[in-house]
Automatic annotation (TrEMBL):
This is DNA methylase. InterPro entries: SAM-dependent_MTases_sf (IPR029063). SUPFAM superfamilies: S-adenosyl-L-methionine-dependent methyltransferases. It comes from Halopiger aswanensis.
Length: 269
């Protein structure tokens, strides 16, 4: 096994790679950017995608890869989130409604803020700016994996605090939220699987926490982007949660944050 984890980052079709796993996962972290159908060509975005045609396909196989009681953490967007919630409820159960069994548990998310703790509106759209993204949480059957970590994390956007962004690869997400969730829901040595990984922030978090991990993407360029990001993270010890960083000339540094500013101001933490 190479020190940089190259062999753990598999280049191939996500469905085939998930089906070939020799072990089940404690957590699967699924990125929406490559999971959502119809992404290619939208708004001029062009990059290769996996062969599966619907989100349901990857969700089903990711669910099969979980061990009993394991958690699915699925990034989403405004289009995907309600559809994914409905699908999980109908196919796997709605524990949020019945307080027993498994299936859909909660909608959380990541809220991007600027250095002062205000909502980040540096990339506004024509019809309001997102300033983050929703995340769907579900677990496979009854689970003893519990944590008080917030489902709603506040973070700096990586492009504001990480050197080398975007590592030549698409939309890069922060590491901090996945570190909080993985730390709360797994134990050292357990396996985290990251399909459709891109720069694989969840895999970087898992490695930092002493968890085993497997990442998957269809493009070798994604693995190269991950290696660049991992190297920058290890060299700079970059953090991307609000409690860890402020911007300092484009670099991240440890500093105190006035958390009282998060009471209101659009923050949901």
């Amino acid at each position: 096994m190479s020190e940089d984890g190259t062999e753990r980052y598999r280049v191939g079709d996500a469905l085939a790679e998930l089906r070939s796993l020799d072990e089940s996962a404690a957590v699967v972290c699924l990125d929406d950017a490559w999971a959502r159908p119809g992404r290619q060509g939208a708004f001029g975005v062009e990059y290769p995608t996996h062969d599966f045609e619907t989100t349901a396909e990857i969700v089903d196989v990711a669910w099969d890869a979980l061990q009993d009681g394991g958690w699915l953490i699925a990034d989403a967007d405004d289009w995907l989130a309600p559809r994914l919630e409905t699908y999980i409820r109908e196919e796997f159960g709605d524990v949020s409604a019945w307080y027993e069994g498994g299936g859909y548990r909660r909608r959380g998310g990541v809220t991007y803020v600027d250095v002062g703790g205000d909502p980040d509106t540096s990339t506004p759209g024509q019809y309001l700016s997102n300033g983050g993204y929703p995340v769907i949480f579900a677990h496979k059957g009854e689970t003893d994996r519990r944590t008080t970590a917030s489902a709603r994390q506040v973070a700096r956007h990586p492009r504001r605090v990480e050197d080398g962004y975007p590592y030549g690869w698409g939309s890069v997400k922060p590491i901090g939220p996945y570190r909080a969730w993985i730390e709360g829901l797994t134990e050292p040595g357990e396996t985290v699987v990251v399909p459709c990984a891109g720069t694989a922030p969840a895999a970087i978090a898992a490695e930092q926490l002493g968890r085993e991990w497997i990442a998957i993407d269809s493009e070798s360029e994604a693995r190269e982007a991950y290696l660049q990001r991992r190297a920058a993270f290890r060299e700079e010890n970059e953090q991307t949660t609000l409690v860890d960083v402020v911007a300092d000339g484009g670099h991240s540094v440890d500093a105190g944050i006035d958390h009282s500013r998060l009471q209101g101001g659009g923050s949901d933490r």
